[in-house]
Design a protein that fits this description.
The protein is mostly beta strands and about 350 residues long. About 5% of the residues lie in helices and about 40% in strands.
Length: about 350
Amino acid sequence: MRKILGLLSLAALAFLLAVACGGGATPQPEEAPTTQAPVELPPLVKARVPPPITRTAPAVVKVELEVKELDARLDDGVGYTFWTFNGSVPGPFIRVREGDTVELTLKNPQGNLLPHNIDLHAVNGPGGGATLTNIRPGEEASFRFKAMNPGIYIYHCATSPVPHHITKGMYGLVLVEPEGGMLPVDKEFYVVQGDIYVDGQRGDKGLRGDSLTKLISEQADYVVFNGSVGSLMGENALKAGVGDRVRIYFGVGGPNVISSFHVIGEVFDRVYPEGALANPHYNVQTTLVPAGGATVVEFKIDVPGTYLLVDHSLSRLFKGAVGQIVATGPEDPAVFGPVR
Protein backbone atom coordinates (compact mmCIF):
# COMPACT_ATOMS: atom_id res chain seq x y z
CA MET A 1 0.00 0.00 0.00
CA ARG A 2 1.16 3.51 -0.77
CA LYS A 3 0.35 4.89 2.65
CA ILE A 4 0.63 3.04 5.95
CA LEU A 5 -2.55 4.60 7.30
CA GLY A 6 -4.19 5.11 3.93
CA LEU A 7 -6.81 2.93 2.35
CA LEU A 8 -5.67 -0.37 3.70
CA SER A 9 -5.70 -3.86 2.25
CA LEU A 10 -7.67 -6.59 3.95
CA ALA A 11 -4.47 -7.99 5.43
CA ALA A 12 -3.53 -4.58 6.88
CA LEU A 13 -7.01 -4.15 8.34
CA ALA A 14 -6.77 -7.49 10.12
CA PHE A 15 -3.30 -6.66 11.42
CA LEU A 16 -4.56 -3.29 12.71
CA LEU A 17 -7.36 -4.99 14.60
CA ALA A 18 -4.94 -7.51 16.09
CA VAL A 19 -2.63 -4.73 17.30
CA ALA A 20 -5.55 -2.77 18.77
CA CYS A 21 -6.62 -5.86 20.71
CA GLY A 22 -3.08 -6.61 21.92
CA GLY A 23 -2.53 -9.70 19.77
CA GLY A 24 -0.33 -10.67 16.88
CA ALA A 25 -1.07 -10.84 13.19
CA THR A 26 -4.33 -12.53 12.22
CA PRO A 27 -4.34 -15.30 9.58
CA GLN A 28 -5.77 -14.02 6.32
CA PRO A 29 -8.31 -15.63 4.02
CA GLU A 30 -7.02 -16.36 0.54
CA GLU A 31 -8.03 -13.92 -2.18
CA ALA A 32 -9.10 -15.04 -5.61
CA PRO A 33 -6.85 -14.05 -8.53
CA THR A 34 -7.49 -10.81 -10.33
CA THR A 35 -9.70 -11.23 -13.41
CA GLN A 36 -9.83 -7.60 -14.57
CA ALA A 37 -7.36 -4.76 -14.69
CA PRO A 38 -7.54 -2.68 -11.49
CA VAL A 39 -9.32 0.65 -11.82
CA GLU A 40 -8.67 3.92 -10.02
CA LEU A 41 -11.88 5.87 -9.53
CA PRO A 42 -12.57 8.92 -7.36
CA PRO A 43 -13.97 8.40 -3.86
CA LEU A 44 -17.55 9.11 -3.02
CA VAL A 45 -18.54 12.55 -1.75
CA LYS A 46 -18.53 12.75 2.06
CA ALA A 47 -21.73 13.72 3.85
CA ARG A 48 -21.33 15.79 7.02
CA VAL A 49 -23.41 16.41 10.13
CA PRO A 50 -25.08 19.83 10.05
CA PRO A 51 -24.84 21.92 13.24
CA PRO A 52 -27.33 21.56 16.09
CA ILE A 53 -30.64 23.39 15.79
CA THR A 54 -30.77 26.53 17.95
CA ARG A 55 -34.27 27.77 17.22
CA THR A 56 -36.98 27.06 19.77
CA ALA A 57 -40.06 26.99 17.54
CA PRO A 58 -41.13 24.68 14.69
CA ALA A 59 -40.37 25.72 11.13
CA VAL A 60 -40.87 24.62 7.55
CA VAL A 61 -37.66 22.90 6.44
CA LYS A 62 -37.04 22.43 2.72
CA VAL A 63 -34.87 19.49 1.66
CA GLU A 64 -33.73 18.77 -1.90
CA LEU A 65 -32.23 15.44 -2.85
CA GLU A 66 -30.95 14.49 -6.29
CA VAL A 67 -30.35 10.91 -7.39
CA LYS A 68 -26.87 10.47 -8.84
CA GLU A 69 -25.89 7.21 -10.52
CA LEU A 70 -22.09 7.18 -10.67
CA ASP A 71 -18.95 5.06 -10.75
CA ALA A 72 -16.69 5.45 -7.70
CA ARG A 73 -14.07 3.66 -5.63
CA LEU A 74 -15.22 0.64 -3.61
CA ASP A 75 -11.81 -0.80 -2.67
CA ASP A 76 -8.22 -0.59 -3.86
CA GLY A 77 -8.35 -1.29 -7.57
CA VAL A 78 -12.09 -1.96 -7.38
CA GLY A 79 -14.79 0.28 -8.83
CA TYR A 80 -18.55 0.04 -8.45
CA THR A 81 -21.60 1.78 -9.89
CA PHE A 82 -23.32 3.42 -6.94
CA TRP A 83 -26.83 4.86 -6.90
CA THR A 84 -26.82 7.74 -4.43
CA PHE A 85 -28.63 10.67 -2.94
CA ASN A 86 -26.54 13.76 -3.84
CA GLY A 87 -23.47 11.69 -4.71
CA SER A 88 -22.64 10.49 -1.19
CA VAL A 89 -23.03 7.18 0.65
CA PRO A 90 -24.67 7.63 3.06
CA GLY A 91 -26.82 10.39 1.63
CA PRO A 92 -27.07 13.84 3.21
CA PHE A 93 -27.71 13.96 6.96
CA ILE A 94 -31.14 15.55 7.38
CA ARG A 95 -31.51 17.42 10.68
CA VAL A 96 -34.86 18.79 11.82
CA ARG A 97 -36.70 19.54 15.05
CA GLU A 98 -39.72 17.85 16.59
CA GLY A 99 -42.79 19.67 15.25
CA ASP A 100 -41.10 20.86 12.03
CA THR A 101 -42.82 20.44 8.69
CA VAL A 102 -40.44 19.01 6.10
CA GLU A 103 -40.97 19.75 2.41
CA LEU A 104 -38.86 17.26 0.50
CA THR A 105 -38.15 17.39 -3.22
CA LEU A 106 -36.58 14.39 -4.94
CA LYS A 107 -35.04 14.82 -8.41
CA ASN A 108 -34.11 12.08 -10.86
CA PRO A 109 -32.08 13.80 -13.60
CA GLN A 110 -32.33 13.02 -17.27
CA GLY A 111 -29.48 10.67 -18.08
CA ASN A 112 -30.03 8.33 -15.14
CA LEU A 113 -31.06 4.85 -16.17
CA LEU A 114 -33.66 3.90 -13.58
CA PRO A 115 -36.69 5.12 -11.62
CA HIS A 116 -36.19 5.90 -7.92
CA ASN A 117 -38.10 7.12 -4.86
CA ILE A 118 -37.53 7.68 -1.13
CA ASP A 119 -38.91 6.09 2.05
CA LEU A 120 -38.07 7.97 5.25
CA HIS A 121 -38.59 6.01 8.47
CA ALA A 122 -39.32 9.29 10.26
CA VAL A 123 -42.53 9.71 8.23
CA ASN A 124 -46.01 8.81 9.46
CA GLY A 125 -47.75 8.04 6.16
CA PRO A 126 -48.00 5.28 3.53
CA GLY A 127 -44.65 4.16 2.17
CA GLY A 128 -42.80 6.75 4.23
CA GLY A 129 -43.07 9.02 1.18
CA ALA A 130 -42.28 6.35 -1.42
CA THR A 131 -45.82 6.35 -2.82
CA LEU A 132 -45.53 10.08 -3.54
CA THR A 133 -42.04 10.12 -5.03
CA ASN A 134 -41.94 7.40 -7.70
CA ILE A 135 -40.08 9.22 -10.47
CA ARG A 136 -38.44 8.21 -13.74
CA PRO A 137 -35.34 9.88 -15.20
CA GLY A 138 -36.10 13.51 -16.02
CA GLU A 139 -38.80 13.82 -13.34
CA GLU A 140 -39.05 15.26 -9.84
CA ALA A 141 -41.61 15.01 -7.04
CA SER A 142 -42.28 16.79 -3.76
CA PHE A 143 -44.23 15.98 -0.62
CA ARG A 144 -44.45 17.20 2.94
CA PHE A 145 -44.51 15.49 6.31
CA LYS A 146 -44.54 16.55 9.94
CA ALA A 147 -41.64 15.43 12.12
CA MET A 148 -43.67 14.10 15.03
CA ASN A 149 -41.37 11.58 16.73
CA PRO A 150 -37.93 12.58 18.06
CA GLY A 151 -35.25 10.05 17.16
CA ILE A 152 -32.68 9.01 14.58
CA TYR A 153 -34.10 7.31 11.49
CA ILE A 154 -32.95 5.62 8.30
CA TYR A 155 -34.17 6.76 4.90
CA HIS A 156 -33.68 4.74 1.71
CA CYS A 157 -34.90 4.17 -1.83
CA ALA A 158 -37.89 1.81 -1.96
CA THR A 159 -38.15 1.24 -5.70
CA SER A 160 -38.49 -2.43 -6.66
CA PRO A 161 -36.38 -4.47 -6.22
CA VAL A 162 -35.85 -2.59 -2.97
CA PRO A 163 -32.79 -4.53 -1.71
CA HIS A 164 -30.97 -3.80 -4.97
CA HIS A 165 -31.50 -0.05 -4.69
CA ILE A 166 -30.36 -0.08 -1.05
CA THR A 167 -27.22 -2.15 -1.57
CA LYS A 168 -26.21 0.30 -4.32
CA GLY A 169 -25.92 3.04 -1.66
CA MET A 170 -29.35 4.69 -1.50
CA TYR A 171 -29.67 5.30 2.25
CA GLY A 172 -28.98 7.94 4.89
CA LEU A 173 -30.13 9.29 8.26
CA VAL A 174 -32.76 11.73 9.49
CA LEU A 175 -32.37 13.22 12.96
CA VAL A 176 -35.50 14.61 14.57
CA GLU A 177 -34.21 16.56 17.56
CA PRO A 178 -36.52 16.69 20.60
CA GLU A 179 -38.10 20.04 21.42
CA GLY A 180 -35.48 20.67 24.10
CA GLY A 181 -32.62 19.87 21.72
CA MET A 182 -29.70 17.46 22.16
CA LEU A 183 -27.17 17.52 24.98
CA PRO A 184 -24.11 19.53 23.86
CA VAL A 185 -21.04 17.59 22.71
CA ASP A 186 -17.71 18.54 21.16
CA LYS A 187 -17.75 16.34 18.04
CA GLU A 188 -20.54 14.73 16.03
CA PHE A 189 -19.85 12.05 13.42
CA TYR A 190 -22.01 10.36 10.78
CA VAL A 191 -21.44 6.65 10.06
CA VAL A 192 -23.72 4.22 8.22
CA GLN A 193 -22.98 0.57 7.52
CA GLY A 194 -24.04 -1.17 4.32
CA ASP A 195 -23.55 -4.52 2.61
CA ILE A 196 -22.59 -4.91 -1.07
CA TYR A 197 -22.80 -7.93 -3.39
CA VAL A 198 -20.62 -8.07 -6.51
CA ASP A 199 -20.14 -10.49 -9.35
CA GLY A 200 -17.10 -12.77 -9.48
CA GLN A 201 -14.80 -13.40 -6.55
CA ARG A 202 -14.18 -11.02 -3.68
CA GLY A 203 -10.54 -10.44 -4.63
CA ASP A 204 -11.27 -9.53 -8.25
CA LYS A 205 -10.32 -6.05 -9.42
CA GLY A 206 -11.84 -3.74 -12.00
CA LEU A 207 -15.29 -2.19 -12.29
CA ARG A 208 -17.50 -4.74 -10.58
CA GLY A 209 -21.10 -5.58 -11.43
CA ASP A 210 -23.85 -6.75 -9.10
CA SER A 211 -24.72 -10.30 -8.09
CA LEU A 212 -28.43 -10.61 -7.41
CA THR A 213 -27.87 -14.28 -6.54
CA LYS A 214 -25.54 -13.30 -3.67
CA LEU A 215 -27.92 -10.49 -2.69
CA ILE A 216 -30.86 -12.87 -2.36
CA SER A 217 -28.68 -15.41 -0.52
CA GLU A 218 -27.36 -12.64 1.78
CA GLN A 219 -23.73 -13.51 0.96
CA ALA A 220 -22.14 -10.06 1.14
CA ASP A 221 -18.74 -9.50 -0.49
CA TYR A 222 -18.32 -6.18 1.31
CA VAL A 223 -19.64 -4.84 4.61
CA VAL A 224 -18.49 -1.24 4.79
CA PHE A 225 -18.83 2.02 6.65
CA ASN A 226 -19.84 5.03 4.52
CA GLY A 227 -19.87 3.24 1.20
CA SER A 228 -16.36 1.90 0.67
CA VAL A 229 -13.38 0.14 2.22
CA GLY A 230 -11.13 2.65 4.00
CA SER A 231 -13.66 5.49 3.97
CA LEU A 232 -12.85 6.24 7.64
CA MET A 233 -9.19 5.20 7.68
CA GLY A 234 -5.87 7.05 7.50
CA GLU A 235 -6.33 10.49 5.98
CA ASN A 236 -10.09 9.94 6.17
CA ALA A 237 -10.10 9.02 9.87
CA LEU A 238 -12.43 10.85 12.24
CA LYS A 239 -10.51 13.40 14.33
CA ALA A 240 -10.99 14.27 18.02
CA GLY A 241 -9.04 15.53 21.02
CA VAL A 242 -8.50 14.40 24.58
CA GLY A 243 -11.37 15.71 26.67
CA ASP A 244 -13.79 15.80 23.76
CA ARG A 245 -17.23 14.36 24.23
CA VAL A 246 -17.98 12.49 21.02
CA ARG A 247 -21.35 11.60 19.53
CA ILE A 248 -21.71 9.13 16.67
CA TYR A 249 -24.92 8.88 14.69
CA PHE A 250 -24.71 5.29 13.49
CA GLY A 251 -27.13 3.58 11.14
CA VAL A 252 -27.41 0.39 9.12
CA GLY A 253 -28.69 0.87 5.60
CA GLY A 254 -28.39 -2.84 4.93
CA PRO A 255 -30.19 -4.22 3.07
CA ASN A 256 -29.51 -7.41 5.03
CA VAL A 257 -26.64 -7.35 7.53
CA ILE A 258 -27.21 -6.17 11.10
CA SER A 259 -24.35 -4.60 13.08
CA SER A 260 -22.77 -5.22 16.48
CA PHE A 261 -21.33 -1.70 16.69
CA HIS A 262 -18.30 -1.28 18.95
CA VAL A 263 -15.43 1.18 19.40
CA ILE A 264 -12.26 -0.64 20.50
CA GLY A 265 -10.82 1.09 23.55
CA GLU A 266 -13.99 2.94 24.58
CA VAL A 267 -17.12 2.31 26.63
CA PHE A 268 -20.22 4.11 25.42
CA ASP A 269 -21.21 6.43 28.28
CA ARG A 270 -24.65 6.76 26.77
CA VAL A 271 -26.46 4.80 24.04
CA TYR A 272 -29.87 5.60 22.60
CA PRO A 273 -30.94 2.11 21.50
CA GLU A 274 -32.69 1.94 18.14
CA GLY A 275 -32.65 5.74 18.06
CA ALA A 276 -34.93 6.20 21.08
CA LEU A 277 -33.66 9.58 22.27
CA ALA A 278 -35.86 9.58 25.38
CA ASN A 279 -34.55 6.25 26.70
CA PRO A 280 -30.76 6.17 26.98
CA HIS A 281 -28.76 3.20 28.26
CA TYR A 282 -25.53 3.78 30.17
CA ASN A 283 -22.06 2.17 30.14
CA VAL A 284 -22.54 -0.05 27.09
CA GLN A 285 -19.72 -1.98 25.39
CA THR A 286 -21.40 -3.03 22.11
CA THR A 287 -24.80 -2.09 20.74
CA LEU A 288 -26.91 -4.05 18.27
CA VAL A 289 -28.29 -2.09 15.31
CA PRO A 290 -30.75 -3.79 12.95
CA ALA A 291 -30.83 -3.39 9.19
CA GLY A 292 -32.97 -0.34 8.57
CA GLY A 293 -32.25 0.96 12.06
CA ALA A 294 -30.04 3.50 13.78
CA THR A 295 -28.61 4.51 17.13
CA VAL A 296 -26.73 7.33 18.83
CA VAL A 297 -23.68 6.64 21.00
CA GLU A 298 -21.73 9.09 23.15
CA PHE A 299 -18.42 8.85 24.98
CA LYS A 300 -15.58 11.00 26.29
CA ILE A 301 -12.02 10.69 24.95
CA ASP A 302 -9.75 10.30 28.00
CA VAL A 303 -6.38 9.49 26.43
CA PRO A 304 -4.82 9.98 22.98
CA GLY A 305 -4.46 7.27 20.37
CA THR A 306 -6.23 5.52 17.53
CA TYR A 307 -9.60 3.97 18.31
CA LEU A 308 -11.15 1.49 15.88
CA LEU A 309 -14.81 1.48 14.91
CA VAL A 310 -15.89 -2.07 14.08
CA ASP A 311 -18.81 -4.37 13.57
CA HIS A 312 -17.98 -6.87 16.31
CA SER A 313 -19.11 -9.71 14.08
CA LEU A 314 -15.40 -9.58 13.42
CA SER A 315 -15.14 -11.64 10.25
CA ARG A 316 -16.66 -8.58 8.60
CA LEU A 317 -13.32 -6.91 9.21
CA PHE A 318 -12.12 -8.80 6.13
CA LYS A 319 -15.00 -7.25 4.19
CA GLY A 320 -14.23 -3.66 5.17
CA ALA A 321 -16.23 -2.93 8.35
CA VAL A 322 -13.62 -0.86 10.18
CA GLY A 323 -12.89 2.83 10.71
CA GLN A 324 -10.70 5.02 12.92
CA ILE A 325 -11.00 7.85 15.40
CA VAL A 326 -7.60 9.49 15.85
CA ALA A 327 -7.44 11.40 19.14
CA THR A 328 -4.64 13.81 20.03
CA GLY A 329 -3.72 15.43 23.34
CA PRO A 330 -1.91 14.78 26.61
CA GLU A 331 -1.46 11.33 28.09
CA ASP A 332 -3.09 10.43 31.41
CA PRO A 333 -1.22 7.52 33.05
CA ALA A 334 -3.82 7.38 35.84
CA VAL A 335 -6.43 6.38 33.26
CA PHE A 336 -4.34 4.28 30.85
CA GLY A 337 -0.67 3.47 30.41
CA PRO A 338 2.10 0.94 31.04
CA VAL A 339 3.25 -0.13 34.48
CA ARG A 340 6.64 1.45 35.17
